[in-house]
Design brief:
By secondary structure, the chain is mainly alpha-helical. The longest helix has 24 residues. It is elongated and about 60 Å long. 24% of the residues are buried.
Length: 210
């Protein structure tokens, strides 16, 4: 009797979506390392692909340019940062206001989750170029949760236009942080955290009295 051949067992393959995520993560990890160690100019897409262990053709399937990699890195960083800010703002009340503000400013200036050299590169390559339009409205989202905190009874702040107040605070702080990270790192010190905290608290206290 002829033997019935058994079908060969195929080796398990990872779902295409999972493989794609792994490839993207490899590319972003390699780009992060090269941007910091060699600088943005020297970290070509060929070098990033080589460091990630993928072909440059595979890299281009996900990122059409080096700037696109920078944009994705900044998006991911800002999503993590937004979650942290939202959690801290949720702790804010009349008693904890100054402490929460100081903690937030300190976290923005000295974030352990991102190398300052990388953050400087991302600001210069994304936030100060036309690529800025590719980033979702991070500042507007922060303004929204700050306005809600100011509006809430827990902060005991009576302001006629919470949205305008939040806009002024967020834009002022972001501008100072970008300047300290990129243009004048010598000012990125604990003293700057104190001064920005004082600026915010004094502004809110002034609005409370008017």
């Amino acid at each position: 009797m002829a033997k019935i051949s058994q079908p060969r067992k195929k080796s398990a393959r990872k779902p295409r979506q999972e493989r794609s995520r792994e490839t993207v993560d490899l590319i972003l990890t390699a780009a992060t390392r090269l941007f910091v160690q060699e600088g943005y100019a020297r970290a070509t897409t060929n070098r990033v692909a080589d460091a990630a262990g993928v072909s440059v053709g595979s890299l281009y399937q996900y990122f059409p340019s080096k700037d696109a990699i920078a944009i994705e890195l900044l998006k991911r960083y800002r999503e993590r940062l937004f979650a942290r800010i939202a959690a801290r703002v949720g702790e804010m009340n009349a008693v904890t206001f100054r402490g929460v503000v100081r903690a937030l400013v300190g976290a923005l200036l000295h974030d352990d989750e991102i190398d300052n050299s990388l953050r400087s590169v991302l600001i210069e390559r994304v936030m100060r170029t036309e690529a800025r339009g590719e980033i979702e409205a991070f500042e507007e989202r922060i303004e929204g949760i700050v306005a809600d905190a100011l509006r809430g009874a827990r902060t005991r702040v009576a302001i006629n236009d919470n949205a305008l107040c939040a806009f002024i605070l967020v834009r002022a702080v972001v501008a100072v942080i970008h300047g300290a990270v990129v243009d004048s790192p010598k000012y990125n010190t604990p003293a700057l955290v104190d001064e920005v905290t004082h600026l915010i608290v004094a502004y809110i206290e002034r609005r409370r009295r008017t």
